[in-house]
TrEMBL record, chain A:
<protein>
    <recommendedName>
        <fullName>LOB domain-containing protein</fullName>
    </recommendedName>
</protein>
<dbReference type="Pfam" id="PF03195">
    <property type="entry name" value="LOB"/>
</dbReference>
<feature type="domain" description="LOB">
    <location>
        <begin position="4"/>
        <end position="105"/>
    </location>
</feature>
<dbReference type="InterPro" id="IPR004883">
    <property type="entry name" value="LOB"/>
</dbReference>
<comment type="similarity">
    <text>Belongs to the LOB domain-containing protein family.</text>
</comment>
Automatic annotation (TrEMBL), chain B:
<comment type="similarity">
    <text>Belongs to the LOB domain-containing protein family.</text>
</comment>
<dbReference type="InterPro" id="IPR004883">
    <property type="entry name" value="LOB"/>
</dbReference>
<feature type="domain" description="LOB">
    <location>
        <begin position="8"/>
        <end position="109"/>
    </location>
</feature>
<dbReference type="Pfam" id="PF03195">
    <property type="entry name" value="LOB"/>
</dbReference>
<protein>
    <recommendedName>
        <fullName>LOB domain-containing protein</fullName>
    </recommendedName>
</protein>
Length: 148, 173
């Protein structure tokens, strides 16, 4: 038997055996944690959920139960489902913004491509310089080869 | 004396095997034709806790409260470790990824705009360069590289947490 009862057994006013399902996850120094889950789920339901899980998952389960209970106490109508709704809205908003910017990028890229094509056409047909003693500079304007 | 729809007890009173009175708190929200709805909520929260939660709410908010409790209960049965918190984690991650993609796209558009602003004025007559002048010309007017981005591939299929399955009506009412 634990010399100090866990928060659950203290709250339930019972002795805390060494095999208490709650004690690893509801320490006596955080009474509010158990109070919240007890208010929303009840001790018996929390105990059942934890017992049905392998031991290595119980800590995470206790944390998520506490989080959901906390959300439900803060928002008795929607609980953490309210947070899910807000997140859906955020995702929708950001997706709309992203779609807008991607469309703008596509439009600008097309415009830029058209301007590049016009530029290359202008340069590919330069005026030929006479060859007597004067070098032919046309190769300097063949831009694609510069970037090869 | 039976509450609920018509003469049949509501789903809650049927499951709890008790008399369904005309002012049964569960009857408006747990009709007898959908026994699973109450069964799952009762499994996770317990009838007594559901009753207490509904009593603490004004009547016009109870339908939404029941819907969200049933949603949470379903999530908990489906994922006994994380319940709804699993969905919240997943969605928060999606928001972060999308915001990152947005920031990257905004940077890309700035690069394109900068590139277009820096474009050389097209010459109408050929210009004479010697080789050194040509090289420094290129270096001074070198075009910035286009950034290549791999779009985020979300391989997690989480259809059950998509918006359409939450409620049949707008939650904010």
């Amino acid at each position: 038997m634990n010399s100090t009862r866990c928060a659950a057994c203290k709250h339930l006013r019972r002795r805390c055996p060494s095999t208490c399902i709650f004690s690893p996850y509801f320490p006596s120094n955080n009474p509010r944690r158990f109070q919240y889950v007890h208010k929303i789920y009840g001790a018996s339901n929390v105990g059942k959920i934890l017992k049905d899980l392998p031991e290595n998952y119980r800590a995470e389960a206790a944390n998520s139960l506490y989080y959901e209970a906390y959300c439900r106490i803060k928002d008795p109508v929607y609980g953490c489902v309210g947070i899910i709704t807000i997140l859906h809205q955020q995702i929708h908003n950001v997706q709309c913004q992203l779609a807008g910017i991607q469309a703008e990028i596509a439009a600008l890229s097309t415009q830029s491509q058209n301007e590049d094509n016009q530029y290359q056409q202008t340069l590919i047909a330069p005026t030929l310089i006479q060859q007597n003693g004067v070098p032919n500079y046309t190769s300097y304007y063949d831009i694609p080869t510069w970037f090869d | 004396l039976m509450g609920g729809t018509g003469n049949s007890p509501c789903a809650s009173c049927k499951l709890l095997r008790r008399r369904c009175t005309k002012d049964c708190i569960f009857a408006p929200y747990f009709p007898s034709d959908d026994p699973n709805k109450f069964a799952i909520a009762h499994k996770v929260f317990g009838a007594s806790n559901i009753s207490k939660m509904l009593q603490e709410l004004p009547v016009h908010q109870r339908a939404d409260a029941v819907s969200s409790l049933v949603y949470e209960a379903n999530a908990r049965v489906r994922d006994p470790v994380y319940g709804c918190v699993g969905a919240i984690s997943y969605l928060q991650n999606q928001v972060s990824q999308l915001q990152m993609q947005l920031a990257v796209a905004q940077t890309e558009i700035l690069c394109i705009q900068m590139q277009q602003d820096q474009q050389i004025t097209l010459p109408t007559t050929p210009l004479l360069f010697d080789e050194d002048d040509e090289k420094s010309f290129l270096l001074q007017n070198n075009l910035p590289q286009f950034l290549n981005f791999t779009p985020f591939n979300n391989s997690v299929n989480c259809d059950s947490f998509k918006k359409g399955t939450l409620y049949g009506h707008d939650m904010v009412s």
